[in-house]
Amino acid sequence: MKQADLDRYASLMHEARLRLNVLRAFSSGEANTAYVRTNTESICLQLRKVLELIAFSSLVCHREAYSKVRHDIAKDWHGNRILKAVEKINPSFYPQPVNGWVSRKRGPPRFENLRGGYLSRNQFAKLYDRCGDLLHSTNPFAREKNFASFSRMSPEWVRRIESLLMEHTVSIGPRHELLWVDVPMDLEKPVVVQHLVQVGA
Prior knowledge:
5-stranded antiparallel beta sheet
């Protein structure tokens, strides 16, 4: 990958953590719109924006291959559709949260994958659609939307997204390449993105 693409990825992750910081402010009550529904809608908007940033980061990693199947890449915006398209190019595209290196007696060190507690691929799709639904005004003849339930769940969604992003790797196709990404939630610390290639591959 070119340095410009690594910088793009880092920029997307930095924006994601800025928006996660806003979400934490809503959860703590530090941020408030003075109306319960607009609070929840603001949370939905920021969550959806973060999910779109994650989808755009997948575009950065697979730009060349994606451009072959989608000719106007600059106009794509729908998070779920982007992920479905990238998934066809590379089924292992989704960020894999890790917890540092694992030393091995034989072979090179490996990353230790987290086994749970982060936003899974299926949860991404469900959350993206749920946020979109709540952002639309309720039809007066439809069932009332459960804003309170979503609001109660939002800190858990934020925690899961943070667990997904804080330290993760991204497989770049079948070429024995990956990105290692460090996204400290402390805004004073830099986002680090490194392109790694398996030796001897």
